[in-house]
Specification:
Elements (H helix, E strand, L loop, with lengths): L5 E8 L7 H6 L5 E3 L4 H14 L5 E8 L2 E2 L7 E2 H18 L1 E5 L6 E7 L2 E6 L2 E5 L1 H23 L4 H24 L11
Helix pairs in contact: 3-4, 3-5, 4-5
């Protein structure tokens, strides 16, 4: 995972569930398979999990911003649901400057609040100051990569999620373009002191 500015990565949970949260947080590599780096292994795990669980996609999503994890490791859930919750958050943020969503079956919330040039991203009561012009496109790229993997590898139609991402990319582009125009420095007219 590139940690220069912003990176995303989706992981599937290897065991049926996490029974030792401290060990899971200390040694995540023993519990997780990367969808991005180990797509074939992740697909095999998905299909195996789906025979025993209602969802094959239990795991977590990493959002790494300037080396800091925006979603704590202990906030694992159904990966598809995490990505959909993130899309809900972005939708609210782009529309009104605030987006909030809880994960299914958990009291933990994900939220983003602020303006196009500065915002706070909160997950499970842990907050980080972010630049939305970096984080929003990064989340959308990660969601697109994940849902395309599900569509192409798992065969689970994700057309609705992919269309939603396209719409959010357009909205984000316009939001950040408008914010940039509003903050563009201008020179005073000549002859004005």
């Amino acid at each position: 995972m590139n940690t220069n500015t912003f990176a995303t990565e989706s992981f599937l949970l290897i065991p049926h569930t996490v029974t030792d949260l401290a060990d899971f947080c200390a040694r995540p590599e023993h519990y997780l398979v990367s969808v991005d780096r180990e797509g074939k292994r992740a697909a095999a795990l998905w299909f195996d999990r789906a025979t025993r669980n209602p969802h094959g996609s239990d795991g977590l999503v990493h959002l790494l911003y300037h080396g800091q994890q925006l979603i704590p490791l202990d906030l694992w859930d159904e990966v598809t649901g995490i990505w959909l919750a993130l899309l809900d958050v972005l939708e609210g943020f782009l529309a009104v400057g605030e987006g909030n969503e809880t994960l299914s079956g958990q009291p933990a919330a994900i939220a983003m609040k602020g303006a196009p040039r500065s915002a706070t991203f909160t997950a499970n009561n842990v907050s980080h100051k972010i630049d939305p012009a970096i984080v929003v496109p990064g989340i959308l790229a990660g969601a697109d990569r994940y849902f395309r993997w599900v569509h192409n590898t798992i065969g689970d139609g994700q057309g609705e999620a992919l269309a939603r991402i396209e719409g959010l990319v357009r909205a984000a582009t316009e939001t950040f373009r408008s914010a940039q125009r509003e903050h563009r420095p201008t020179c005073p007219p000549q002859g004005v002191a």
